[in-house]
């Protein structure tokens, strides 16, 4: 009861803080959802407003790198480091959040008190929970990221935070790595990529700035450079992650305002919207106030045709992301995620050990080779073994994978399977080059020499090099290498956790346990016995790990089946052409 009263008091303080600083809840409320999702945004009695605007937050209230550089406490130190190139804008955000979390009289306290204290991404897993990810891309990625963050904390953050706190008159507070880890997770789970008018980011000297009532330190300009690609990639892809990908209709803003600056930042209030594949709202920026009546504001706009039912949760879309990215960034997964992806890569370091590595490296560079490829689940719909509905069977609506069909000799025909090949040709081009035999390498050299001359009057184009490689090699070597890579990936995935059937059994047991009487879920003694295997409810982190790794096994198996079939067709056609 005491905890509930405290949570209610925190929420009231936050809502008052929002209103005092100009935010307007026009058709929604912010309230507690559950232990997994924390707080969310819900429709209120006013959600039927004709303009569909549900929430308006002045951008003066956003936390961005420019605000950090202008902060009276952090600004001087941060500007010096930023000017020297010692830190980037994301570091500034994480440093600011770490310091403000520890400051006893932080003007951001009502907001920071509402944020989660722990997160569901692998950086916060226990040692046992992390073991559930062994064999996956995320396991190694998490180890590397935690090591990097720890090095950054010990090498730069720890002493700097202490220094800043002492300057603020606080010599008692102790900073810990968990404080910095918390700040990092807050940023990655909540930051938005905001299209801001240039005049807002870089106001004229004589422009009168609106003050927010927090303190003079929080002035209007905000800036955070983040490329759109980084947002859409969070390519956990490579173990590198990207920021948040929120669906935002920036086209109109971009056309109306030529000078738009994309800035990463936290927008209190808007950032309490949870994710749903079918978003019921989007967020947009109102630079002039023509939509909301509040210039330089961000607003939440209803995306539904009819009015919201009262107390209906209002969700936005974080983008079409696979479970690997969702778990790495946000700490949750979606069972049977339609946007799931599989990362396949050829290790760069392995190229040095292959035959004719120097020549092949030059060819790879000339082709701007892609050493990794992200295979989206939807690609399988257009292959030989589609997993989805068969109602469109025989109807090829997929754009054919582009395969080079230029042939010097006229002997290399476009493969019959080209329209069913689900693997991107950019990656197959890389694999063709790596798998190339000595005689094929000689043929590529001869073909390119015909084009550019023996004296090398010009450099062959990327397209010409790709064409020569395809003419000399075909697809068999590349597909065999792809099959090998997928076999290795499946072996790694199954080594520690078994097959996807094993994962399915664990998830089905969990579903059964969730419906058990409460005493069984706790694992208490019932009728003189205790069955921990059946009765102990698994942690949310473990459940997320199993859902994620099962999806990876399913995708690997499906793409392996496609690769093996394509390989057999390629070998058959090669044999037919030679006979």
Tag the structure with descriptive keywords.
579 residues; alpha+beta; set domain protein methyltransferase, domain 1; globular; SET domain-containing protein; Rubisco_LSMT_subst-bd_sf
Could you please describe the fold and organization of this structure?
This protein has about 575 residues and is α+β, with helices and mostly antiparallel strands. The protein has two domains: about 1-195 and about 260-315, set domain protein methyltransferase, domain 1 (Alpha-Beta Complex), CATH 3.90.1410; about 340-385 and about 400-515 and about 535-579, no CATH class. The protein has helices spanning about 1-20, 65-70, 75-85, 90-100, 110, 125-130, 135-165, 175-190, 200, 230-235, 250-255, 325-330, 355-365, 425-435, 440-450, 460-475, 475-495, 500-515, 520, 530-535, 540-579, and strands spanning about 25, 30-35, 40-45, 55-60, 190-195, 260-265, 280-285, 295-300, 340-345, 370-375. The protein has a four-stranded antiparallel β-sheet, with no helix packed on it. Strands 2-3 form a two-stranded antiparallel ribbon. Strands 5-6 form a two-stranded antiparallel ribbon. β2 and β3 form a beta hairpin. It starts with a helix and ends with a helix. This is SET domain-containing protein. GO terms for molecular function: protein-lysine N-methyltransferase activity.
